[in-house]
Specification:
Structural class: alpha+beta
Order of helices and strands: HEEEEEEEHEH
Helix content: 10-25%
Strand order of the largest sheet: 1-2-3-6-7
Number of helices: 3
Strand content: 25-35%
Bound molecules: zinc ion
Distance between the termini: 27 Å
Largest sheet: 5 strands, antiparallel
Amino acid sequence: MALRNIRIMGDKILEKVCRPVNTVTPRLRELAKDMLETIYHTYGVGLAAPQVGILKRIVVIDVDREHPHILINPEILDTCGEQTGDEGCLSLPGKLGRVTRPNYVKVRAFDLDMNQFELEGVGLLARAIFHECDHLDGILYTSRVEGKLRENVALKDEEKK
Ligand code: ZN
């Protein structure tokens, strides 16, 4: 396993639409594991393949460090409710902004054995699923922010330690 370099906003790869995954190769399996490893070494709760320079529809999410989710070709089936809160992105280090998302999501995806499954998320998990799925269509949360991006002060203090 290895940490991957994260592409920063301004990199054109973050604005591209990703291609579906047809087969899970050993390389793709390694990519998924590396992506999880990468969020565990950062303050991230999720990461999408284009953020590490791979234009494929795969995202990893783990909002509590106990339930890693690998979603291949995720497709949103249902949404409900509304939540407004701060959102950040590993491609915009040290920033956050207010974004309104549905409070509930049901998503269909494939796992590393290409078995289809459904995942439901509320609150932060739902937010992470929307945020990461947006990346697969080249959408950054900055296009959804209400008001201005702010400095993530807590994170900066943490980095000084
Ligand atoms: Zn992001």
